Amino acid sequence: MTPEPHSLTDTDDTALSPPPGCPAHGTGPGGLRRLYGPEAEDLGAVYEKLRAEHGAVAPALLHDDVPIWVVLGHGENMHMVRSPSQYSRDTRLWTPLRDGTVKPDHPLMPHIAWEPICCHAEGDEHLRLRGAVIGAMSTIDHRGIRRHINRATQDLVNKFSEDGRADLVGQFCEHLSMAVMCEILGMPDEYNDRIVHAARDMLKGTETAIASNAYIMDVLTRLTVRRRADPGEDFTSHLINHPARLNDKEVGQHLRVVLIVAYETTANLLANVLRVVLTDPGFRARLNGGQMTVPQAVEQSLWDEPPFSTILGYFAKQETELGGQRIRKGDGLLLGIAPGNVDPRVRPDVKANMQGNRSHLAFSGGPHECPGQDIGRAIADVGVDALLDRLPDIQLDCEEHELRWRASISNRHLVELPVRFAPKPQRDVTVRPAHTLSAQRPSNGQVGTPQRQTRASESAVPPTAPTPTPTPTPEPAPRPGMFRRLQRWWRGD
Ligand code: HEM
């Protein structure tokens, strides 16, 4: 379909909104659909209406009826993020911000306000800032992090395993992502309920959000001061000492971006994967039957429920054309991750399994493509695997339709994920795994891992046995699984 060429600036010559009850309700000036308010409670449905009406790129309205293009096509989103000469992440280019249409108290200001961070930078400045982030990330010991994820999972499960019930969002997903990120940044002692609460509060944008942001910035500023004086082998020290020579403000802002982006996205991803495992009988059967691995389940979830559903935004640097629409210099475009992932041109059957296909938009693409995706995937892979290993009989503790969601333009996430299971004793996370573990595990709790054979959680603690060499040695006859566990420990899986 070739949509009628449209211009966002055409919205001036418009009629008033139709009254409630009118079929056109939910639209604003110019008859454009709103992406906010009660009409937009199901944004997925709004995007499909927009796709039917306009094709791959549709005009719509943000809060205060600020015009925006929504990029709905998979290819159009990819083209946009990969064309830095035409589209920028620098919010200062956006006409409605320049001409005062977007007021300083606009509800989306936290996404819009320009900051000296890699997310908003381009060209050489982007290379400098992102280079420092990537340089610091490249020093992360991925094998050590996978062990830490497993250990943190065991600690968290110990807190509720004897109760027989838990809320996985509040007691597991949000805590696991924060615990891992505090370890990576080099501040494991700062991981506690308060920092989890502050991050959650900040993202909810409640009246205490400013105080919560100040608390997190204070923690990160103190960390920066400590690491400047006494560097260690952590992300923060490497960020500070990177040849890009970030100043203290830049270090603090990038630590905040990394902490908050990682916390929010991985907590959402964990909850999404666990919800599907708990509610979709086919999905669980495929996992238990060995046709699907946890990493494949994670990838499927990145297609179906990407942790960021959209990103605000990209901004046109020149007059151009996208998806048949005429885009003017200074127009804003919403990176449509969720609608792009269900573009019928790439997914004619949205129920079809995307096994093996990683071309979803969850991590975006182009120069700003998420640099933390391996860490996000590792937290989800190891965390879900280890949780299912501890609680193989876990079940949803409510009807599926009773689950509550909180939706915003940037994401849609579960408020709670109540589960029940037979109470289990705590596990001592300091002892190395028993060699007979896999033989003891009930078969209905086994997550199929055809390629991996064993589970991530079994590499909890390095065995004290002699250090294995990378060259495979003949397996001696011993208890089943031991050699593979040693191999996996060596690989850091
Ligand atoms: C499942 C988890 C994650 C998802 C779905 C995700 C997704 C994204 C997306 C969509 C972007 C925006 C790209 C754009 O502007 O076009 C982004 C940027 C970014 N992410 Fe992630 N992310 C995840 C985990 C992480 C983690 C764990 C870290 C850090 C350890 C991280 C660090 C960053 C940074 C620094 C940027 C800005 C990059 C730039 O602008 O150059 N992310 N992420």
UniProtKB/TrEMBL annotation:
Gene Ontology MF terms: heme binding; iron ion binding; monooxygenase activity; oxidoreductase activity, acting on paired donors, with incorporation or reduction of molecular oxygen
Biased composition regions of type Pro residues, renumbered to the chain: 463-479
Chain intervals with Polar residues compositional bias: 437-457
InterPro entries, from UniProt?
Answer: Cyt_P450_B, Cyt_P450_CS, Cyt_P450_sf
Question: Quick one: where's region Disordered?
Answer: 1-32, 434-493
Give the protein family: Belongs to the cytochrome P450 family.
Q: What is this protein called?
A: Cytochrome P450
